[in-house]
């Protein structure tokens, strides 16, 4: 099952992506490999054009 993580409405839920990722790492022991896979899945599910998807994919690859 593919899942993504988002902040939905940060001011309402008082969270950030960093906080969400920190909680996943703390609660489930997720590491850099897990987050890299999560980000790839999120990119596949993103509502964006091909050029934007490619630009983000390059940034994700460079961050690994």
**Number of E strands:** 0
Please indicate the percent range of residues in DSSP E strands (runs of 2 or more): under 5%
Tell me the major beta sheet: none
The radius of gyration is 13 Å
Number of helices: 4
- Uncertain spans, ≥5 residues at pLDDT below 50? none
What integer is the average pLDDT? 93
Query: Termini separation (Å)?
Result: 23 Å
- Binned, the helix content reads 55-70%
Large-scale geometry = globular
Structural class, by secondary structure, is mainly alpha
Helix/strand order: HHHH
Helix-strand blueprint:
Blueprint: H1 10-13, H2 17-28, H3 32-45, H4 50-63
Helix pairs in contact: 3-4
Describe this structure in words.
The chain has 64 residues and is mainly alpha-helical. The protein has a domain of 34 residues. Helix content is 69%, strand content 0%. The chain is built from 4 helices and no strands.
Keywords:
64 residues; mainly alpha; 69% helix
Please provide a brief summary of the model.
This protein has 64 residues and is mainly α. It is built from 4 helices and no strands.
């Amino acid at each position: 099952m593919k899942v993504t993580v988002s902040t939905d409405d940060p001011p309402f839920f008082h969270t950030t992506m960093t906080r969400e990722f920190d909680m996943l790492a703390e609660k489930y022991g997720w590491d850099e490999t897990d987050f890299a896979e999560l980000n790839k899945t999120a990119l596949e599910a993103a509502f964006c054009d091909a050029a934007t998807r490619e630009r983000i994919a390059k940034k994700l690859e460079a961050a690994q």
